[in-house]
Amino acid sequence: MNKSPGQIAYEQELLVKPNYHDGTPRKAWDQLKDFAQISWEQDPTPRYRNVAELRAFKGRDIQAHELASES
Question: How much of the chain is in helix, strand and coil states, percent to nearest 5?
């Protein structure tokens, strides 16, 4: 199965931010409601709040093509 651009972006962000602000784990792509998936498809970019958050994943450079190859 090929991943859509929205799914790739969501999963990329999930690697950086696996939990919500209250510590609750974020849902996997297939558990998201339709409107959430549509939102990611309309804007398939991770939603980092700032540069520090973008770098929070311990310096790992996660590229969208890496996630796509996991499918």
Answer: 45, 5, 50
